[in-house]
Design a protein that fits this description.
Layout lengths: L2 H51 L2 H5 L1 H12 L7 E7 L3 E2 L15 H7 L5 E6 L7 E7 L2 H37 L1 H13 L13 H66 L5 H29 L2 H6 L1 H14 L5 E7 L7 H22 L3 E11 L2 E10 L14 H11 L3 E6 L5 E9 L2
Parallel strand pairs: 5-6
Antiparallel strand pairs: 1-2, 1-4, 3-4, 6-7, 7-9, 8-9
Helix pairs in contact: 1-5, 6-7, 7-8, 10-11, 11-12
């Protein structure tokens, strides 16, 4: 069920509830009005009768009393009243020509709801000569019920027409204002398909317009992330190809030539039948030297591909070894490394990530920073009940403008490694004031 239909259904339920409550309220008021009207009329008739019979002349003239009582009994034409005259020996009733049958036009359900309790007033007239006679006044709400039904019907019809018209109008208005939702859904579908260049227009509703602007911002961020990922992928492929080219060249230049030399020496020794022992020993010594060279070249290759010390002695020893080797090859820059409370059971992914981040930092500092000192500290910290490894790398070099995007590939690659381990990467730098990289990566306790 669509949002439009749900909203209209909710509004319809509210309107129907309003209609029902209004109907009960109107009918209750009509019932009170009918009751008050008939009671007032009956009391007024009673007072008029009492005033009429209080006359001295009427009290002493029996014939006139009978005529007045008969006239009263014929007042069924009076609204809301039935008047009957009773005595001990007869009942004075009106002539048939004065009897009016009142037909109620209101429906039965309305009559049942608004008809008040029966109102009956009895007045006894005492005469010293004749037996007492009673005047019985009974309320008849028929006319008042009809009048109230006319008013109630008009009000209920007006409410019903208003509710139906409003509901239809709201259906179209809601449809008009919710129409942009289809555009937003289509945009999300395009995003799912990888179309990050999509941009939604401005909408009239402030809420939908904010959604549109946030959507456009999200699409822009995704487009930038896609470009960065493509750049990182390209960089990774270039690194792989460069590493393969370097390995192939080194295999050709170092291993290939050295093996060819060993083969040549061995062939010369084998073909020279007149060689004395000293010549053979010299050739064997040369072969041993070449073999040592091959071993060293192979060891360097393996270390570049995967530092064996990382597997043999752990992360800290591997970092110390790499930094010491790096310091031994530099004259104008020195790296100081400190650590505390680093667990020895870090995962392989964390070990290689920290190792490559430090390695890339040293490479970047050497190439771009013009620094004389690098400080690297690595500590285990606890924050809000969770354990983290904090890696802080600082140099005193030329720094960079942190407001500019990281166009190089070293820093984005480091950030990618940190985010891959669900960590936080923060770059703090000012031009000519050095650069600080602060990294926090969560670890399992």
């Amino acid at each position: 069920m669509s949002l439009r239909i749900r909203l209209n259904l909710l509004i319809t339920i509210l309107f129907v509830s309003l209609f029902i409550c209004s109907s009960f309220y109107i009918i209750a008021n009509a019932r009170d009005s009918v009751q008050h009207e008939v009671e007032s009329t009956a009391n007024l008739a009673l007072q008029l009768i009492e005033i009429a019979f209080s006359s001295t002349t009427l009290k002493s003239d029996e014939q006139k009393q009978i005529e007045v009582l008969k006239k009263l009994s014929e007042q069924d034409l009076t609204r809301h009243l039935h008047i009957d005259i009773e005595s001990s020996n007869d009942v004075i009733t009106p002539d048939e020509k004065h009897i009016v049958v009142k037909v109620i036009k209101a429906p039965n359900w309305f009559v049942k709801l608004v008809t008040p309790p029966l109102t009956e007033i009895r007045l006894w007239l005492n005469n010293p000569i004749e037996p007492p006679r009673g005047v019985v006044i009974r309320a008849d709400p028929a006319d008042e019920i009809d009048e109230n039904w006319t008013e109630v019907k008009s009000i209920l019809i007006f409410l019903l027409v208003f509710i139906i018209s409003s509901n239809i109008l709201l259906y179209f208005v809601i449809g008009k204002y919710l129409a942009p939702i289809d555009t937003i859904l289509k945009g999300l579908s395009d995003i799912e398909k990888g179309n990050y260049e999509l941009e939604l227009p401005h909408f009239r509703l402030p809420e939908l317009d904010r959604i549109s602007q946030q959507f456009n911002h999200m699409a822009k961020v995704l487009l930038e992330s896609k470009a960065k990922n493509q750049s990182l992928t390209k960089y990774s492929l270039e690194i792989q190809e460069e590493e393969r080219r370097h390995l192939a060249q080194e295999l050709h230049d170092e291993l290939g030539q050295t093996i060819a030399a060993i083969k040549a020496i061995a062939a010369a020794v084998m073909n020279d039948k007149e060689s004395d022992k000293n010549q053979i020993n010299s050739s064997l010594k040369t072969i041993i030297e070449y073999s040592d060279h091959i071993y060293q070249v192979a060891k360097n290759m393996m270390h570049r591909l995967r530092p064996s010390v990382l597997d043999e002695f752990g992360l800290i020893k591997a970092l110390q070894s790499m930094i010491d080797d790096w310091n031994s090859r530099q004259d104008n820059i020195f790296c100081h490394f400190s650590f505390s409370n680093i667990p020895s059971d870090l995962t392989e992914l964390l070990n290689i990530s920290f190792f490559r981040i430090v390695q890339e930092s040293l490479t970047n500092a050497l190439k771009y920073s013009s620094a004389s000192k690098i400080l690297i500290s690595m500590n285990s910290v606890n924050f809000s009940g969770s354990n983290y490894i904090n890696l802080n790398i600082h140099d005193d070099g030329v720094g960079l403008n942190k407001d500019k995007p990281m166009t190089g590939l070293g820093l984005p690659g480091m950030k990618e490694r940190v985010e891959m381990n669900h960590g936080k990467f923060e770059l703090i730098s000012e031009v000519n004031k050095g650069l600080t990289i602060d990294i926090s990566i969560p670890i399992k306790s």
